[in-house]
């Protein structure tokens, strides 16, 4: 044991701070580099950006702002049709009078006259 030497490595304060700085810089560069590389290689990135813009525009029209949506929610929101975009009235739907009446009674009426249906929940 007397011949064994214990090598103790001591770092000065400046060396330690330099090492921490370099490791932090390396980690940050690696993170942003991988993130950029992933975005560059994603073949659907362009469609996702377009869907997000379209969804934000549609959601802005119906009054929903400052909402963070997942990728799936963005794809659904991009296909929302606002009420102002619907230019067809009930009179223009031909041959479906029974279905129109059912929709009015089960969907439209409870929305417009909530007080009539308050006990049914």
From TrEMBL:
Membrane-spanning parts: 19-37
Keyword line: Membrane, Transmembrane, Transmembrane helix
The protein, known as: ATPase family AAA domain-containing protein 1-B
Organism: Parasteatoda tepidariorum
Lineage of producing organism: Eukaryota, Metazoa, Ecdysozoa, Arthropoda, Chelicerata
């Amino acid at each position: 044991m007397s011949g064994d030497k214990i090598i103790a490595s001591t770092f000065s304060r400046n060396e330690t701070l330099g090492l921490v700085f370099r490791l932090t810089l390396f980690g940050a560069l690696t993170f942003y580099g991988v993130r950029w590389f992933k975005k560059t290689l994603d073949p659907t990135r362009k469609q996702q950006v377009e869907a997000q813009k379209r969804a934000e525009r549609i959601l802005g029209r119906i009054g929903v702002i400052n909402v963070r949506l997942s990728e799936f929610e963005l794809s659904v929101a991009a296909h929302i049709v606002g009420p102002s975009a619907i230019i067809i009235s009930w009179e223009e739907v031909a041959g479906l009078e029974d279905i129109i009446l059912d929709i009015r009674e089960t969907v439209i009426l409870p929305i417009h006259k909530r007080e009539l249906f308050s006990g049914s929940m």
